[in-house]
Design the sequence.
């Protein structure tokens, strides 16, 4: 049976629509996760990403979703801000505690080019995994001013200006991408289909 | 870094129209059909601007926006008549990835930029500039190039950056829709004045115009409308031409 991908809804900022549409295009079934009990109905979870770190954590807390995300032991894919909030700390609009699932911090990108980093850019896969299958050197759409600083779980790097940053991570059941697969044409759909096909434990 | 090639749809619902100097409208097709066409041609993004909602003082119309979002798997920026955080939220929920604001921020309350950046992140807040040459400077216009604001463009772009805007859409009331080239000096000065990406629009009349503006002003993106609507060139043509001239664009 085809697995069900939960999309975590965190209030006024989430771009649920685009992510849902892209997962369906990739051949997946989706369910919007609004409350803790919804986690029982899904096989995998995607945390989409539009918003600021601080606001996202507040919304997750208001909806009582933090404990459920911490306990969820099936594959989780964080997209952009959704990957960032897996970290311990964020520094967007003050210091905010993240989910703490990843030994990482989220800091402003500091480099010689224009910030936010916006547009299609290449990824260099340094630790191949199932999610990145067939995606070496592909271009994905980035739209961010902050980056995940992590040294232990790096899957891919991307170069912007004179600066390299972490564009994908993987640790146990956690997957994260700094770019937006739902906005990255065929390469993005391919990544989502890799996620759909992944075994759910 | 790749220069983004963006298709811009100026919409007077339910049609994409072609304004000249922001006036004299001509119907070009439906937003979703044109968006699909430019997506298939390899556009990096689509901008959708409801050009009459501020002027008519009415809300943006959701149906056309939703329908257009549905055909795209690239970023989609939407603007026109945005007045509140609630409007931002509504647009994100019907498929926008970025929201474009001008009139309300310029004429009423610029702090909406700060509030939106705090809730949605600065990457999601685009400020639209409608610049018109005035003596040796440029003045910000609103309501589709109709209403003066007294604000100086170079001062205003720095202010919106400080307030948290993540991108500038730079349009020129003087060159818009004429297909006779961009206001290059305006673009170069705005790009130099801010640390956020600037998307330059208004005036692409040939592939050479696009190459020139990139070489001289180094914008992060170029938004094209008429040139595409009249099928004079495709996005592929633009990208191929730029690649042949050693300008980086996405695949």
Sequence:
């Amino acid at each position: 049976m085809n697995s069900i991908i939960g999309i975590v809804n965190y209030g006024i900022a989430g771009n649920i629509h685009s992510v849902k549409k892209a997962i369906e295009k990739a051949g997946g079934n989706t369910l919007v996760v609004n409350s803790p009990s919804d986690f029982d109905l899904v096989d995998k979870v995607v945390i989409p990403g539009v918003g600021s770190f601080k606001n996202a954590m507040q919304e997750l807390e208001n909806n009582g979703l933090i404990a459920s995300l911490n306990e969820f032991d099936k594959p989780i894919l964080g997209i952009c801000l959704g990957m960032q909030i897996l970290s311990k700390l964020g520094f967007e609009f003050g210091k905010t505690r993240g989910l703490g699932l990843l030994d990482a911090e989220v800091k402003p990108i500091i480099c010689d080019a224009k910030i936010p980093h916006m547009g299609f850019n290449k990824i260099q896969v340094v630790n191949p995994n199932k999610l990145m299958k067939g995606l070496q050197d592909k271009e994905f759409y980035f739209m961010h001013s902050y980056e995940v600083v992590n040294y232990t779980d790096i899957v891919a790097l991307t170069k912007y200006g004179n600066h390299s940053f972490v564009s994908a991570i993987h640790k146990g059941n956690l997957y994260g991408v700094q770019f937006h697969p739902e906005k990255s044409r065929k390469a993005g759909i391919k990544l989502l289909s890799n996620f759909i096909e992944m075994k759910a434990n | 870094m790749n220069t983004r090639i963006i298709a811009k749809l100026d919409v007077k619902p339910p049609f994409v129209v072609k304004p000249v100097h922001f006036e004299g409208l001509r119907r070009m097709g439906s937003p979703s059909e044109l968006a699909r066409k430019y997506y298939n041609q390899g556009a990096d993004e689509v901008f959708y601007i409801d050009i009459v909602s501020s002027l008519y003082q009415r809300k943006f119309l959701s149906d056309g926006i939703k329908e257009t979002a549905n055909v795209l798997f690239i970023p989609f920026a939407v603007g026109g008549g945005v007045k509140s955080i609630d409007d931002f939220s509504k647009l994100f929920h019907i498929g926008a990835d970025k929201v474009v604001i001008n009139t309300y921020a310029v004429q009423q309350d610029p702090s909406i930029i700060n509030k939106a950046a705090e809730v949605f992140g600065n990457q999601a807040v685009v400020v639209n500039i409608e610049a018109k040459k005035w003596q040796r400077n440029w003045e910000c216009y609103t309501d589709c190039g109709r209403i003066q604001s007294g604000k100086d463009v170079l001062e205003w772009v720095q202010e919106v950056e400080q307030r948290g805007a993540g991108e500038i859409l730079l349009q020129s009331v003087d060159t818009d829709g004429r297909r006779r080239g961009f206001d290059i000096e305006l673009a170069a000065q705005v790009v130099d004045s801010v640390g956020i990406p600037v998307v330059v629009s208004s005036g692409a009349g040939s592939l050479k115009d696009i190459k020139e503006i990139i070489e001289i002003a180094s914008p992060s993106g170029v938004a094209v409308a008429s040139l595409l609507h009249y099928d004079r060139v495709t996005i592929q043509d633009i990208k191929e031409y730029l690649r042949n001239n050693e300008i980086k664009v996405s695949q």
